[in-house]
C-alpha cells in the first residue's frame, strides 16, 4: 500500500515531502483521478489540484464523482489510473456517500495493482477505523458514532494548526477511546509505504491520555 495523508496542499509544502512526491511517488506522464466523495464536486478545488499536480508531472487529472449512479464505471475509472487524489470533503457527507459504494475493496484492489493514493485534509479522517473523537470534538455530529474505512492502523487529525487548541480535550478523550492519533499541520504529511510509516514535519502523537511530538523529516 502506498498512501500519503496530506494535511493541506500549499505552496509551503514540507520540502522533504515535496521531494518525495517529486522523486518517486508520481511518475511523469502518469494519469491521475480526482475522486470526489462529497455531495457535489468542488470545481475550484479541482482546478487548484490540477495545477498542484502538474509540477509533479501529472498532466491529466480525470474527474470521478462517487455519486455517479453507474458504480461499475466509478470502480473502472479508479482502477485504470495509477494515482488517485482524494480531496478534502465533509466527512459526514463522505460517509453517507460511501454507503452506496464499497470504496475500501476497490482501493485494496487498486493498491494490489501498485496504485498510489494521496488523501487531503478532512478526508484523511475516513481512512482510520474509529471516528469517535472526531464525532464528538471536531465534527460535532449529533449522529450515531461513525466508522471509517479502516485502511490504516491509526487516526490522522489533519489541519492540526486549526484544532490544536483542543489538545487537552483530545488527550482526555484518548483515555476513553483506544487508538493512536496523529495531529498534522498544513503542509506536512504522513506516508504509508506498506509496513513503513514516515512522518514529514513535526507530528503530535496522542494516545491513552498523553501526547508527544515527533520531529519528522
Outline of this structure?
The chain is of the alpha/beta class and 217 residues long. It contains eight helices and eleven strands. The protein has one domain (2-215): Rossmann fold (3-Layer(aba) Sandwich), CATH 3.40.50.880.
Notes on the protein architecture:
There is one protein chain. Helices cover 33% and strands 25% of the residues. The protein is built from 8 helices and 11 strands. A 7-stranded mixed sheet has the order 3-2-4-5-1-8-9, sandwiched between helices. A 4-stranded mixed sheet has the order 6-7-10-11. The longest helix is centred in the first third of the chain and has 12 residues, at 43-54. The protein is globular and about 45 Å long. It starts with a strand and ends with a strand.
The portion of residues assigned to helices is 25-40%
Tell me the series of helices and strands, N- to C-terminal.
Answer: EHEHEHEHHEHEHHEEEEE
Supply the number of structural domains: 1
Distance between the termini: 20 Å
Provide the CATH superfamily.
Class I glutamine amidotransferase (GATase) domain
Portion in strands: 25-35%
GO biological process, one term: proteolysis
GO molecular function: serine-type peptidase activity
Family: Belongs to the peptidase S51 family.
InterPro entries: Class_I_gatase-like, Peptidase_S51
Keywords:
11 strands, 33% helix, alpha/beta
What topology emerges from the helices and strands here?
Layout: E1 2-6, H1 15-25, E2 31-36, H2 43-54, E3 60-65, H3 71-79, E4 83-86, H4 91-98, H5 103-112, E5 116-120, H6 132-138, E6 155-157, H7 160-163, H8 167-176, E7 181-184, E8 189-193, E9 196-200, E10 202-207, E11 210-215
Parallel strand pairs: 1-5, 2-3, 2-4, 4-5, 6-7
Antiparallel strand pairs: 1-8, 7-10, 8-9, 10-11
